Structures are given as structure tokens and as C-alpha cells.
Amino acid sequence: MLTLDRQICFPVYALSRQITSIYRPLLDALSLTYPQYLVFLVLWEEDKINVKTLGKKLYLDSGTLTPLLKRLEQRGLLIRKRSPKDERVVEVFLTEEGRKLKEKAQHIPEQLVSQFHISEEKLKQLKESVTQTLQAIRQL
Q: DSSP string spanning 44-56?
């Protein structure tokens, strides 16, 4: 069992690193890291979200997410505010500059996929399989 070719985690890990390396130059043009890009993907869908929910969606803990959000806030791309209903809850909102970033990022998915040299159907199957596995593991 202790050989690299028998490990489930290795191809997933290697694939993740390869995909992230393809993203890097695309995101460098926006001065974003991959985790920051993920935050924006969520915020472009729902402009107001609390940090706890954001962390659940991205599988990130608050120790990772808080400094990331602080840097984006310092750049004027988002705002963090305490909820008026419960001051323990921090909510995240896009600024106008954060909304404008969506226009600059809109072609990233196509640019990424064009470098894969694999059919869209295979990519869709891969995504579904990985998502199902991730959800099953998350239940543990």
C-alpha cells in the first residue's frame, strides 16, 4: 500500500498544484492570489456574506481567511463590518472596485480550460467526482 502510485491523495494533490500554476499568471494580471480569487468568486455571487459562511464555502478556517480579507480590504476591494444584529458576526461586502474586478476576471475560466487539452465533458465528470468525494469526506 505504501507506494506513490497506490495513493488516492497524490494525483489530487498534483492536479491541484498544476491547476494553481496555470491560474498564477492569469491572476497575477489582477494582483490576486488563488485564495483571494476564490473569495471574489463567492462575493460576486452574493455580495453580502458573513465570514463564517464564506469560510465554510471555501474550506478555509478563520485563521487563514481573516488576514486574507484584511489585505483585500486594505486594497479597497471589500469592506468588513460587524453585523448590526449580532456584533460577533463579521459581514463582508464588495466595494465598487471589487465589483469592477469581475469584468477583468470574466475570461479567466475559458483561458484556464483552454490550457487543459481535455474535453469539457471529461472536465465536468472530474468536477462532479471530486465534488462528491469532497462532500463525502466533509461528512466525517
A: HH-SEEEHHHHHH
Instruction: Give the DSSP H or E segment for 69.
Output: helix 62-74
Q: For the segment 39-59, what is each residue's pLDDT rounded down to a tens digit?
A: 999 999 998 999 999 999 999
Residue 93: which of 109, 82, 103 has the closest Cα?
Answer: 82
Mapping DSSP onto H, E and C, the string for the chain reads CCCHHHCCHHHHHHHHHHHHHHHHHHHHCCCCCHHHHHHHHHHHHCCEEEHHHHHHHHCCCHHHHHHHHHHHHHCCCEEEEECCCCCCCEEEEECHHHHHHHHHHCCHHHHHHHCCCCCHHHHHHHHHHHHHHHHHHHCC
Residues in the chain: 140
Cell numbers placing 109? 475560466
Give the global pTM.
Answer: 0.91
pLDDT digits (tens, 9 = 90+) for 88-104: 999 999 999 999 999 99
**pLDDT tens-digit readout, 113-133:** 999 989 989 999 999 999 999
